[in-house]
Amino acid sequence: MLKDQPKEKHFTIFYGDTGYSYESIMRPYFKGSSGITIEDPYIRASHQIQNFIRLCETIVRHSTIRKINLVTSFDENTNVSEMRDSLDELKQSLLEIDIVLDIKLDQNLHDREIRLENGWTIKIGRGLDFYQKPNSWFELGVNDLSLRKCLETKVDIFKE
């Protein structure tokens, strides 16, 4: 394996840990990938969509990915119209910088997985929603997720 190649990783983020952002976890694995598929049934509530937007921002800043596939779900408590409107606004925003966002709804979706076209798979037990809600919207970690306290979750990164 080349020195600059990312390695397979398996670790636990513990409750209250900080220092974890989408960039710190995923960035090394973006190299050489033009597409990414995010399967996460919980990209429906406003804060979950905000987490997805933060992932998209990370993708835009640190990769050559031009196609993002999102597969998510909804339940009887989901305002599907509001969810679609929010994701459509993001889709348009990405299109303006030549990145295609394809959105599919799958009511049977349960597992969470991120697959890159270069063969890497990233599984985060809680999906993108592994951050604690801040005590105040005026504290560190509100915008910089590496400063936000986490919920406990396992992370598995491996190559198919």
Mean pLDDT: 96
Strand-pairing-aware structural class? alpha/beta
Largest sheet: 7 strands, mixed
Which fold name corresponds to the CATH topology? Endonuclease, Chain A
Q: How do the strands of the widest beta sheet line up side by side?
A: 1-7-6-5-2-3-4
Molecular structure report:
The protein is α/β, with parallel strands linked by helices and 160 residues long. The protein has a single domain (9-159), classed as Endonuclease, Chain A, CATH 3.30.870. It is built from 3 helices and 7 strands. Strands 1-7-6-5-2-3-4 form a 7-stranded mixed β-sheet, covered by helices on one side. The mean pLDDT is 96.
Brief characterization of the structure:
The chain has helices at residues 22-30, 46-62, 80-95, and strands at residues 9-13, 35-39, 67-72, 100-105, 113-116, 120-124, 153-159.
Tags for this entry?
160 residues; alpha/beta; Endonuclease, Chain A; 3 helices
